[in-house]
Specification:
Layout (H helix, E strand, L loop, with lengths): L77 H27 L4 H18 L14 H26 L15 H25 L3 H25 L4 H26 L13 H22 L1 H34 L4 H25 L1 H6 L9 H26 L4 H20 L11 H20 L14
Helix pairs in contact: 1-5, 1-8, 2-3, 2-4, 2-6, 2-7, 2-8, 3-4, 3-6, 4-5, 4-6, 5-6, 7-8, 7-12, 8-9, 8-11, 9-11, 11-12, 11-13, 12-13
């Protein structure tokens, strides 16, 4: 008989079986039918959880007890933080839409178009600001909260000042009678304040306090609307009043956060910020904020104002769909064994809720935009085309949510960024034959084509349809 080397294979728990010849059993079985002793099966290694009994009142805690949990922080699940940040974005966009509705009745379309050019630039520069925090690695949230303004403020201010100097229309946001340098400085201050706010949101998400960012957004929106009414209706300012209604509360909130957050988060555990990926942040900023900037610069403030209002309605519905999809990550994290059922339920809920909303919005697009003013009702057909493209975007949003829930969303963040770049290419390459909202239909048609291509891509890729994930054994 030829003896072969023993084959060592891992068990279901990832542990390798030892060679039986290296450690022979204590009881040897022999053919003489001697008395044998059965070896009991050993279960998997588990970490013992101590039982905490009710201590009598007045008894001093035992510092050596294993059940002592004093000082151990309770950390929220990353999926819950991601959903809270999606809710913050949705509430911020909805509050901004209400603010633009008020502004449309206080200032003419040309002034609103010039003001939204500056505000969109604030959000465009501030949106990717959390990427700078990745340079600091794993720091305590309290330390990261005071490092955030130091890191993002100079960069955002420099970018804002450069854009304010290059784009002449941004000079209109300055108060009349001020020197020409006031326009770029005002834009630089707005970009810096927006970047600090977005950076603070990333710090709060990393500390498990993303709900604080939600409440800050809920409080900030009415303050901005109140400032808008005071500056435009009472003081009689037009474009400068709209810009200052955004800039003033943002600067105050950023300064307050820079002073308070390092104190409130000083005892938090060290850890990296849990936010969207770099590609996701850049893609969302380009699609939501750079597209109206390009349209306004190329077609003028009056046409850009009508396009911007229709685009804001589209952005609110888009962010609402993204918030609905974020619930899937938390559900899969809590019940990984029911991934297939959870994915199917999320897809059904997404289409049942948003397809009727899109159909209703397409039917009421004209009256909805006419609520902003007669000059904005002409963009009804433009909004209908955007909502049609959003119907195909739901497919992409659901598949992105599935892969993010399974930890494989990076490839589809690239797809999102690529789709945003294609829409920008269409907006830039569109020839300016005449000034009017009807000329922008080609931008919406290009958006539809891009979303159809992206939906086809996520449905064709075989890896997208997999919901079973192989977990590598330790």
């Amino acid at each position: 008989m030829v003896l072969q080397p023993a084959i060592v294979r891992p068990d279901v728990f990832g542990r390798t079986h030892p060679d039986p010849r290296a450690d022979p059993p204590t009881v040897v079985l022999d053919p003489s039918r001697a008395r044998t002793e059965e070896l009991q099966q050993v279960g998997p290694e588990t970490q013992q959880i101590p039982t905490i009994a009710g201590a009598p009142q007045g008894a001093a805690p035992d510092p050596d007890s294993e059940a002592d949990t004093d000082g151990i922080p309770v950390v929220a699940h990353p999926a819950d933080d991601g959903r809270a940040m999606a809710l913050r974005a949705l509430l911020g966009s909805a509050g901004a839409l209400v603010g633009w509705l008020v502004a449309a009745h206080l200032v003419p379309p040309g002034a609103l178009g010039g003001a939204q050019l500056a505000v969109s630039l604030f959000l465009l520069v501030g949106g990717p600001a959390p990427l700078v925090l990745g340079l600091f690695g794993a720091l305590r949230p309290g330390r990261l909260a005071w490092l955030a303004p130091v890191a993002v403020l100079p960069v955002a201010a420099a970018v804002g000042a450069a854009c304010g100097s290059v784009l002449p229309r941004l000079a209109a946001v300055a108060l009349p009678g001020l020197p020409p340098i006031a326009g770029p400085l005002l834009v630089a201050a707005g970009c810096a304040a927006s970047a600090v706010l977005f950076a603070h949101d990333a710090v709060l998400a990393g500390a498990g306090r993303a709900r604080w960012a939600v409440w800050r957004t809920v409080v900030l929106a009415p303050v901005q609307i109140g400032a808008l009414i005071a500056l435009c209706a009472v003081a009689g300012l037009e474009a400068p009043g709209v810009v200052l209604s955004w800039l003033g509360p943002a600067v105050l909130c950023a300064a307050l956060g820079a002073a308070v957050l390092p104190v409130l988060l000083r005892r938090g555990p060290a850890g990296a910020s849990r936010g969207s990926t770099a590609l996701g942040l850049v893609g969302a900023a380009l699609l939501h904020h750079l597209v109206p900037i390009v349209v306004t610069v190329r077609f003028g403030p009056e046409t850009g104002a009508a396009f911007f209002v229709a685009w804001q309605v589209f952005v609110v519905v888009d962010l609402a769909a993204a918030y609905t999809v974020h619930a899937l990550s938390g559900a899969v994290a809590r019940e990984p064994s029911r991934t297939d059922a959870l994915v199917a339920r999320a897809r059904k809920r997404l289409f049942i809720v948003f397809l009727p909303v899109i159909a209703l919005g397409a039917g009421l697009a004209g009256p909805l935009l006419a609520a902003f003013g007669a000059a904005y009702g002409e963009a009804g057909d433009l909004l209908r085309l955007m909502l049609l493209g959003l119907a195909f975007r739901l497919v992409v949003a659901h598949e992105v949510g599935v892969r993010q829930a399974l930890g494989h969303g990076l490839g589809f963040d690239r797809l999102q960024l690529f789709s945003a770049v294609l829409v920008l290419v269409v907006a830039i390459a569109l020839p300016v034959t005449a000034v009017g909202v009807t000329e922008l239909r080609l931008v919406a048609i290009g958006y539809i084509i891009v979303q159809v291509a992206c939906a086809a891509a996520v449905l064709v890729i075989p890896a997208v349809r997999r919901t079973d994930v192989e977990v590598r054994a330790p």
